[in-house]
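Curious: why these numbers?
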Amino acid sequence: MPLTSHPISPTNPKNKKVKSSSQIEKISKFLSDSDLVKDEIQEKNVRVDEVKKEKITETVSHSEQKTVNKIESSDDKEKIDSRKEFFRLMAEKIKDKDFNINKAMAVKEEINRIEKGASPKEIELDEDGFVEDKQEEDYFEEEVYYEDDNNNSGKKILEEEKPKSFVLYKKIVYRFLFLTFVLLLLVSYLSFVKLNIIVHTEKNKIDASLNFYAYSNSEKMNLDRALKSSITKMEIEEKGTFKSSGEKDTGGEIVGRVKIINNYSKNQPLVATTRLLSSDDKLFRLKDTVNVPAGGSIEVDIYADSISEEMAINPDKFIIPGLWIGVQDKIYAESYQKFNYVKDSKKYVMEKDLNSAVESLKNKIIEQAEAKAKSAIGSGRQYVLSVDTDSFIVNSNKKIGEEAESFDVSVKSVVNVISFETDEIVKLAKQKISIESSQNVSEIDANSLSYELVNFDSSKNLAEVKAFFAARTLVGSDDFINKKHLSNLKKDQIEAYLNKIEEIKSYELVFTPNFLKRSPMLIDKINIEYR
């Protein structure tokens, strides 16, 4: 049948195999090989006959050997006959379209095995008398063509069959890799998927206080609400200079200046202490002697005989009582600025000045003690100070009533720093609220904690402290969310569940990883935080 380059027809499944020219060449080669084998066997038989003639006179042992040679010769002839029969049948099958070269070669291999003295294999023959091929691998790479019922030749295909063991091994490997990948995905999901729910609930604010005892002895105190604390003593000294507020009046003076005007035709000399009388009859005097030129004026300082704040008068016109009454309207004095009253006094130390100084230094001692306490106790602890009033030492360079513009004071005191753990106070506060109000405490505001020293016994290193704090309690219980109801849910399903709970004011959902909007399968991976 002629071959074409057309591919296999996809619409006609009834394609038929046709033997290629290369197969015919292979079979011809096998036939030529059989002729060579035949010639070799004939030559061997000739040699056997010659040997027979030469040893015909040999002993009985030699005759036995001859008998064996005859048998071998007979066997060789049978082999030739079987080969001829095989190639005759194979030549007839070549004409058949359904002939399988692999089956023919299987028969040839079996004949070769028998000739070599091997035991024959059990083989199954097909309906044509050829062995049925049970092996997965072909003896040759079979080149085949396909043609459909319309004599359209198809595409040349190289068929290679792979061993079943290799295919099976390959399937096992793929399945193992697939199961490993699925297992890794499952482990990653269970390990990394988390959900954090931040719940904001309605809260009540409560302001409360409690008393507790702080001790530093190694033995535990048999007292209710007693905390192991640290008590440190510090000796601190502060110094300062302060002004005196006491004042003694020792007199004063009136300070001012006037202009003397001379509208008369002659110069008018005036001596020091010349009187000047204001419009409201207040008397002042000139400090210096002056000579006022005719038609001119001159300025001069004044003072008052009576010193008081009332003598500090506003600008005014003055007459000179010592002049002749006829020229008093021509020669007179005027002031243009208010006179000043300058008081003359001395400062002295009063009792309140000393007490205020000591109190100020005490505050500085406490400030210094707080600064040292903060740097010493570290974070997570709080403290209260106890100032030993009996240990105050006050020194001053001036006594009460002594004249001085300022005075120096120094104060030295012993301060006890009592420090304790903040968490312990918070725990006591929660217990107190839970017992007294039967409410669930959401949180204790640590920033609201403040302390007041009630009593301190330095001999026993025991202090009674009062703590003030602000607490927030939940409305209702804090176990109204069941984690089992949140396992393996989508985001909208979680929101639908939480929206039904009346105690929740608002909430936040934090998924890990962020792109996976689904709750974990394990409830241990679901964390609920109440705020």
